[in-house]
Specification:
Chain A: Its EC number is 3.1.-.-. The complex is a heterodimer. Chain A is α/β, with parallel strands linked by helices. Chain A is about 45% helix and about 15% strand. A four-stranded mixed sheet of chain A has the order 1-5-7-8, with helices on both faces. Chain B has a domain of about 130 residues. In chain B, helix 1 packs across helix 2, helix 1 packs antiparallel against helix 4 and helix 4 packs across helix 5. Helices cover about 40% and strands about 25% of the residues of chain B. Classes of the chains: A alpha/beta, B alpha/beta. At the A-B interface, helix 2, helix 3 and helix 10 of A face helix 8 of B. Bound molecules: iron/sulfur cluster (SF4). Iron/sulfur cluster binds next to helix 2, helix 6 and helix 7 of chain B. The site of iron/sulfur cluster (SF4) has 12 residues of chain B, from helix 2, helix 6 and helix 7.
Amino acid sequence: MRPLRNVIYVQTQNAWLHKDNENLVLKVDKETKARVPIHKLQGLVCFGQVTISPYLMAHCAENGITITFLNMFGKYLARVEGPASGNVLLRRTQHITGHNVEKSVAIAQTMLTGKLYNQRYVIRRYLRDHSEKINDEKILIDLQVAEKRLTRCLTQLTDCKTIDTLMGREGEAAQVYFGVFNHLIRQADFEFDSRRRRPPTDPVNALLSFFYTLLTHDCRSALETTGLDPASGFLHQLRSGRPSLALDMAEEFRPMVDRFVLSLINKRQVVSKDFETWPNGSMTLKDEPRKTLLAAWQDRKQDNLFHPWFEETVPIGLLPWLQAQILARFLRGDCDSYVPFLWK
Amino acid sequence: MIKQVALEPIYLSRLQHYLYCSRQFALIELENIWIENQFTAEGQVLHQRVNQADQQKRGAVRTARALRLANAELRIEGVADVVEYHQQADGTEIPFPIEYKRGKPKAHRADEVQLCAQALCLEEMHGVAIPEGALFYGEVRRRHPVIFDAELRNLTLQTIIACRDIVQTNITPHAIYQARKCNGCSLIDQCHPKDFGKSASAWLAAQLKKD
Ligand code: SF4
């Protein structure tokens, strides 16, 4: 198993990163604040005003460490990576498969199967852990109904013959799922109405958007490492600059982010005063809480989960990488279908 | 399938991979699967060898180290650890390849095939017939003579053809799990020989039915 290397999130504003022997050194105003061995690194994610020396960049590029720049609010800006990995044959097969409607639908369908399955797991898990504590009959029934409807959506996915119908089913499932999402929140100051993306205007949506961005970054790195082209997806339409395949792959993991966000809220690891509102109505995390939550996210990635296809217990952080491997093996003809990660 | 330019040479060291497992060869050759330990180590060794290229003469034997070899017709190339040139009575020289191996002599013929492939390169480069060479095993610290007879030459040619076939068709052979082989294989984590033996679609359908 590939060891889970670390992703470092640099949030210190006006930080200067450079290489000193085999170490990455973070300085602010010429003063050294941190020093990390580079060989332990998988990725470097920089928020806002962070500057990197060309030597460090070159070293990262040569060693397959990807550097991602996000603005202070976690919006993706740019990415630095080394020469494309030598896997041109795999990429070509991927692109050819992308032109084949039937095959693309089959892949997209299995990926969404993973998403819906895992969304249902979030609800099931809540019902399992909290049924006795739910005093409100209506909430209990709502959740049970949602669980059943998701099961139906799951079976209906199998009949879809086009990307559009798949997207339609996925949309239905999202309505069901986010329709009861507020029931899963047990803190009065956090209210979830519906999924709002651009820009998020409430704390729950702000948290979801923030961690979805990080999830997509991880999926992208995993695909890149495996030699797949993150820009060429099957479910998401190709658009220049958009990591379509990373977005495809993120689908099956979104419910894991959802549950992570729910636990942050329910355990009061995040509170409403951790957010600030901007003149356009958008809401973002303040600096300090963002740091704490990133650390919590890093910790979460070290937790182990059972991977039913590999029949092995693996750290969460490795999941995108394992799924990228399954996809690559499928494209190469090693197996007759892609299999998503099923959360059990 | 996608055709690759057929002229790319096969590296001598890759023949051993093929003889160990044809899928392992394909994973490395076609898929550039990165094996941290083995691959980087190999690269470093190659690097060191190239840097150390030299030759010496002692009596009737001229010794060349880290000699680059190629056979244009077979389209194979690589680096020989050591080639001794043995001077004959008539003044001509017969190359005598020697390959250094860690460990001890093995049951399979991968090391002999690699050495024989070196001889095939040297024969083309120098236009002479090479009857034998030697393997030097670190653990037993002894030279094992290897005779390049018809059988070994045949096995070597078959191996080269089979490797080229994989490169040209761009098809990675399916995994077949064999405990003895796979458990000692540095690619086992990327290859997943057990998992990709089962039907993925049937597995997924069964999981969905279960609950
Ligand atoms: S794990 Fe087994 S099947 Fe896979 S490459 Fe290694 S030896 Fe071959």
